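FORM 7B - TANDEM STRUCTURE REPORT

SECTION 1: FIRST PROTEIN
SEQUENCE AND TOKENS:
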Amino acid sequence: MSKIELVRQEMIKAMKAGDAPRKEALSMLLAALKKKAIDKRADLTEEEENAVVFKEIKEAQEALDSAPASRTDIIEENRLKISIYSEFVPKLMSEDEVRAEIKKVLMQLGIEKPSPKDKGNIMKAVMPVLKGKADGKMVNRLVDELTRG
């Protein structure tokens, strides 16, 4: 079942339960998924669907981070969106799992002691492996730590 169908089913459940905030958040997610499918002019792959949901989570997180403390309505709305949208994406890898993947890539590249010059090559090799499975900022930070020594 595609994410579009899954989100639509959850939205219907929320409407029947009278949960307006959840229905509204799911409606926005559904619109984003449909827009991406229309732009592509084809069905989305699971990876593309996950990318859309991650993008929506990131946007909600940015809105949450930039909201003034006095605007509790915005803060609550974006926290709700993040929690709801998180139901539709695979669990991200932990730092330890990401470190293990980076070490595998280092072995494949034949790099024993990574230097700052190697960072670009390491990132090029590791990001396709971890895309959609780990937070890009965390991967960048971990590779940076490794290359600095």
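SECTION 2: SECOND PROTEIN
SEQUENCE AND TOKENS:
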Amino acid sequence: MLTRRNLLQTSLALPALLPAAPTKSTFLGITVMPEDYQVEGIPQVIANLKSRARATAVATSPYVMQPSDAQHGQRQPPIDAGAGGVRLLDRPLWGKREIYTTSSPSFTPNITLYKGLRYQPGEPDDLTKTQGAMVREFLRAAKAAGLKTYFQIQSVIPPNYIVTSGGPTEDDKPRLPDGSVPKRRVGNTGSLASPDIRRYTQALITDLCQQYPEIDGLRVDWPEYPQYTLDDAFLDFSAPAEIAAKRLGFDFGRMRREALSLYRHLHGNLTDADLRNPNFALLPALSKSPGLQDLSRFKASLTSELLAGFRAALTAAGGPQKELVPNAFPPPFSFSSGMDYRLAARHANGLSVKLYTMHWPMILRFYGDALLQANPGLSEELLTKRLVATLGIADGPGHPHLTDYSYPDPETPHHAGLNAQRNKIETAQKAAGSTPVYALAHGYGPLADFEERLGIAWSASRQRVWINRYGYLTEAKIDAIGRICR
């Protein structure tokens, strides 16, 4: 199921390569956001990472944070389009497991790098002056402790410092085949085809390399079309995408016609007979129609171009030794997101495959609710069964009803099969060839469930894991990491 014939996206015209065996060195990285060491202090965080969790690397971001309120701030942790309201932090920020905050850049941008660009970096302010230096102090302390250091930035959410702040202009928003912007999105990402967003992010990469030469590399988040809702699978038909399609030789009109036809069928004409038909495509990327196959290839080309530009900027500013490690959705979500692992591997030192398993039941529920609402009378059990199989999130048939799937609270195990998680990592590694694939495990959830998921991530990735993130790691989880990832 997950491998799908020829891994559709890898069918782009590329010279055949014989994949070398991935490297076998172990790697354990943990994402630590600046607010974590702003609250706990740098020495305590470093001790937890190095002495207890036995990490070999750490990622942080170039911003600092302060408490705010619901009117002016963003919820931490992110609310994920309303479904993640049950999610709470395990390590409180300023005494709270749920808090509203504002953020500021941790540095004063070199504005000459952004001259003439449509998008501009965030303005440094009093918080930058009083707290910004902590990011550099943290990086230096981590290096002194023997940890590799990385920045995590957003790819297409200008100004790209943090996922909950920023976004594209109206004409740079990705669009559905009818030209509209999806009403419900988890991330405010822009079109991968936007030259303005690309130029801005490349300038930011240059700036960060100059400001923080001590970093070993960059982890870029969402260099694809994030796949959380059914609408996300039908992107992108924006004006920048149309221009890019013409430049790359894709028939934009045919892609749009065929995507619109399937979209309309799913929103009013879907039948139980369709759900019983194994050849019927619930998602554009699973279709055999030429236009929809081209749509998958087109998005893969956009992601590849985006990463190529990031790689060039990183090499020019920091040297070829600086690592580029994109975060990516796992198969089969990657078929619709644009993340062709074979193409992306050409520009990356590694690829982090997200095992954000608390999102998987949420995604299934988002898809199912949308399809049931648009097609009254559809069999809920049949739809649920088909979605479980299509998304590949269970080891067996899964749960029978759509209402069995929802965003888990902190004490509820995630509805995700262990073999399903392993399969996604192995499928990605096969496509990536000799470029190492890291399992990006998530710390959210109860201890026993976290330990089980981490064990699978560690073994399936050949002992190469990133953990997102420190704020979800209780004391017991930190010690568990040290036991499991030896």
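SECTION 3: OBSERVATIONS ON SECOND PROTEIN
The CA atoms of residues 328 and 353 lie 5 Å apart.
The domain at 24-173+189-227+296-484 is CATH 3.20.20.80 (TIM Barrel).

SECTION 4: SIGNATURE
Preparer initials: ____
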